[in-house]
Write a structure and sequence with these properties.
Strand content: under 5%
Radius of gyration: 21 Å
């Protein structure tokens, strides 16, 4: 049988894991992450468009970046709706 000290260590381990999970979730839903991905997407697409000589590459590269941001907003809305309807 576990001793009180072993149980306390297990509880602390679980608390530490829960803290890591909460931080990871906060990062996944943060605007910092969303903006970083959108900016990275813009840069990569812009470079690609410049290489293949697309007309108005600076404007055209905005489309996938803005699309990504809109998709994250939609997903949050759908997630909230889904959570409400699926108890």
């Amino acid at each position: 049988m576990s001793t009180v000290q072993e149980l306390e260590k297990q509880i602390e381990s679980i608390k530490a894991r829960n803290m890591r999970v909460e931080k990871d979730k906060a990062w996944e839903t943060s605007w910092t992450r969303r903006i970083a991905i959108a900016v990275s997407t813009y840069i990569v697409v812009l470079l690609f468009f410049l290489v293949i000589h697309v007309d108005r590459p600076y404007l055209s590269a905005l489309v996938p970046s803005i699309g990504f941001l809109f998709s994250t907003l939609t997903i949050d809305f759908l997630k909230s709706w889904w959570l409400k309807t699926h108890n």
